[in-house]
Amino acid sequence: MHYNSAKANTHEQTEKRRSLRSHATPAEALLWRMLKGRGAGGFKFRRQQGIGPYVLDFYCPEVRLCVELDGSSHDYKQEYDGLRTEFLNAQGIEVVRFRNEQLWTNVEGVLKEIVRVAEEIKGRMAPHPCPSP
Fold first, then answer.
1. How many other CB atoms are there within 10 angstroms of residue 18's CB atom?
2. For residue 112, what is the enclosing H or E element?
3. pLDDT in tens, 71-94
4. CB–CB of 51/7 below 8 Å?
5. Measured between alpha carbons, how far is 82 from 30 in angstroms, rounded to an integer?
6. Where are the domains of the chain?
7. Topology of 5-124 in CATH?
8. In what order do the strands lie in the sheet with 54-60?
């Protein structure tokens, strides 16, 4: 069962997403520069996308892929992150996580892995049949 997306667009969550976009961490800003404008293998990403009660760092609706960047604050949030991932998986959204350190030391490798995962998901998706004339 998928979450009603209308609930993700409450005024409070819209303001939270707006604030997160304007106060991005340096790692989020760097990854966004790489992802925006279909910079990741032609896949279009959104940043700070609301899904249910959560705000995703980066989201590709075409393949239902969530990309999360984890800084040191996530060291103490493993249980929360696990519940969040379970919720998103139940919505049909795959989650891939990277530590900020991975991005800083291997930005091209992180981008390649995002594209690889997106292409893998796309390959698993059933093709849409063409309507008969």
1. 11
2. helix 107-124
3. 866 456 788 889 999 999 999 999
4. no
5. 25
6. 5-124
7. Endonuclease; Chain A (3.40.960)
8. 46-51, 54-60, 65-70, 94-99
